[in-house]
Amino acid sequence: MSKNSDVLIFRDYDDFFGLIAKTGEATAIPGGVAFRCDAPFASIRYETYRLFDFIDLEFFKLLPHANIDFRYELGSNHFEIGYVTEGAFRLVTENYGDSVICPAHLYIAPPSGSQGRITYYKDRRLGTLSFIAHRTGREVARDVLGENGCLLWTEAVMDGKGGRHGLYPLTTPPPDIINSLVHAANCNYPHRVRRLFFENVFREILLSLIARELPDDETSSGMNSFDAERIKSVPATLMTRLDSPPSIAELARELSINATKLQRGFKKIFGKSIYAYHRDTCLERAAIMLLDTDKSIFEIAMDAGYSGSGNFCNAFKKRYGASPGRYRQKGAACKRRLAPCGGS
To answer: Is the pLDDT of residue 49 over 90?
Structure first.
């Protein structure tokens, strides 16, 4: 470890976590391990559970007291799906570029053998939930979903030449994946059943990722890969225009695609109509803000694209079975099993 101005630079991942291990304290919990570290450079809390006997599910919370920077080099067998619940970090990957992974972003580890850097930001709390295995994605899919799952995973994430398809980085997860991750992050089940619950969550996420990335059958759908890629950009477009969402006709003109083909293609890819999917995405975003921010319900309604809190509350209760206020109260009671970073 060295210090450059206000940046702590570690040689690599092992250097960083080796120092944490020396200064922290681990405690056994049913099905896993809880760890806490209050060092001069950072306060850290995490819990880890072993799933399927080869996947580690890690809930990680960090409050750096300086910018922290370290290099990573993934081994030949590395699989990781992560989700940011709070804060942000910088991920630089050779051959893939520079990304800032923010709250409600899903990230999938770069291909095995990739190298790069990770930066954690001073005084900015970071919370992540990660599924990690020292195996390839194909092996993980095979051992969790069976041989057919392995074949589907290969088809979903590999192109015809054997290279990566479009999975890294995935920063705009669909509502079904967000919903599974929010449930995992706020699980209040007894310890003895948590492992089963987390394993089911991982299966759902893996299946959803595969379904999202499988190439389309052009003959049956009448949609070529170029049309499919344009249609996949629609959710992100709608989220950047919450104040004045475009109509179907406007979207079709912007994408240079027939409106009927746009609607049919969207439903084939995402399983819902355009605006039903967009509504669910906005409500998922609101659910996360209720749990992870102190914003008022009115502010969250505005951030989720609603013109008033009345319409928002009605839609939220229909989706989640509880009012936004009640949902926040229930979440506050169960979402923090570990003390906040820097707390007692």
So the answer is: yes
